[in-house]
Each structure stands twice: as C-alpha cells, then as structure tokens.
Amino acid sequence: MDWAIATFTVALIYPLQASSLAPSLARLAVFVIEVGLLTALGGASIGKRVFGIRVVTWPDYLFVKTSSAFLRTFLVALVIPALLIDSEGRGYHEKFSKTTVLRVR
Q1: Residue 6, SS3?
Q2: Sequence-distant contacts of 26-35: CB under 8 A, at least 24 apart
Q3: What are phi and psi of 85, to 5 degrees?
Q4: Complete DSSP assignment for 60-94
Q5: Measured in Å, how far apart are the chain's first and last C-alpha atoms?
Q6: CB–CB of 27/15 below 8 Å?
C-alpha cells in the first residue's frame, strides 16, 4: 500500500509509463520519506495502520526514534536485509535498527 501511495504521488510529476531512471528513483525517495517519517511520528506508515501493525523498539517495545525509523525504512528499500531473516524470524532490517512489529488489533 505504501508503494502504491509513492507511485501515485510521483505520477503527479512523471507519467506512470515512464521508463527512465528518474521516476523510479523518485518513487523510491517518496517511499523512504513517507514510511520513515510516518513511522517516526506515529509508529506506523499508512499501510501498517491499515493492516493493524506498529513498529516499536526491540526488546523494550517503546516508540521508535527518528534515526531508527529511517534506518529501518532505508534497509527495507534495499530489499536484501528484509529478505534475510534470523532464527527468531526477524529480518536484518529489524535487527540493525533494533525494531520489531507488533499487531495492535
């Protein structure tokens, strides 16, 4: 859902069918800014709110600091840390940013 928001936001500037690198990088930048900022301010992006999950610190379950929220989002944007998981089922983007997600409903 967050990627769709970034895509349609960038579509206000670039056509959806544009095949150059600029629209792709703009989508990625909007995604990182939107998810990082909303996670830092409220603990969840729009997509996480819709699905009833929240990002908190690990292991004490407190609000996420701005730096941790943006580090986590940047690592998610790189994709590889999010695909690699440890024995507890947590992605490396969560381990590096010392965060985890909780179901809130």
Answers
A1: helix
A2: 27/3, 28/77, 30/5, 30/6, 31/2, 31/3, 31/6, 31/73, 31/77, 32/70, 32/73, 32/74, 32/77, 34/2, 34/5, 34/6, 34/9, 35/2, 35/73, 35/76
A3: -125, 155
A4: T--PPPHHHHHHHHHHHHHSHHHH-B-TTS-BHHH
A5: 18
A6: no
Spans of all domains in the chain:
2-103
- Side-chain half-sphere CA neighbours of 35 within 13 A: 26
**One pLDDT digit (tens) per residue for the chain, 105 residues:** 999 999 999 999 888 777 788 888 999 999 999 999 999 999 999 999 999 999 999 999 999 999 999 999 999 999 888 789 888 888 999 999 999 999 998
- How far apart are the C-alpha atoms of 92 and 105, rounded to whole Å? 25
pTM: 0.87
